[in-house]
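Student: Hello, beginner here. Can you help me understand the protein record under this note? Any guidance would be welcome.
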Amino acid sequence: MDIGKKLSHVVAIAAVAGLTLVAGTGSVIASGEAKHPEAQDWSFAGPFGKFDVASIQRGLQNYIENCSACHSMNQLAYRNLSSLGFNEDEVKEIASQYEVTDGPDDNGDMFDRPARPSDKFVLPFPNEQAARASNNGAFPPDLSLLAKANPGGPDYIFALLTGFVEEPPEDVELAEGMNYNPFFGGGQIAMAPPLFEDGIEYSDGTPATIEQQARDVANFLQWAAEPEMEDRKRIGWKVVLFLLVLSALLYAAKRQTWARLH
């Protein structure tokens, strides 16, 4: 999978701007409630839900090729990608596409080196000021916990990414440089539509419709926010089963004890 290639800088900025979902990076001109997102059918929903690994891998590709130009993933290390089916060599290849500052060396100097699987995802900017300078004053938020930070979760992410409308309602007057999206508070957001039909070439050949890209990105961000979800559910069911068996044994012991007394 050639996930190292980059789209043009303009497309990347447009895409990452669209992923600035919360944290105030887009200025809201008019106050008001956002449109409630419709509930989507997610494979991870429910007590028996599981992640759609293929979709998460596509979401990762979308993040690397588009979003990583501006958005960080502070809570993820490259080695975490092994849980998505990438082998050791593939994880090393993904990490090595980025450089990190390390040191000091024997001379007391800092130096750059290719990232390793043990490194956290490399930051797109050295500091907040540099990030704002490159994004017209906006500070792109970290995406690691975005799916858990917003009450709408992946439903909201999907709705916002697919909810940009070229022409707002007649009663809405867009300020200069703003875009209309009913799923953002106030409806006006300072970010361009992030996704484009066939805007990315998926390595597995999946057609890159806007809806498909939005679903893949939402799946990836849900996994990034809670990568241990499947393990937690498995442990939970084992605990429930243990408690049921224990309850049955305690009830049987109680009946036997009272039977002897009477």
Notes: Confidence is low (pLDDT under 50) at residues 3-31. Helices lie at 9-18, 53-65, 88-96, 128-134, 146-149, 153-162, 210-225, 229-261. The CA atoms of residues 26 and 190 lie 5 Å apart.
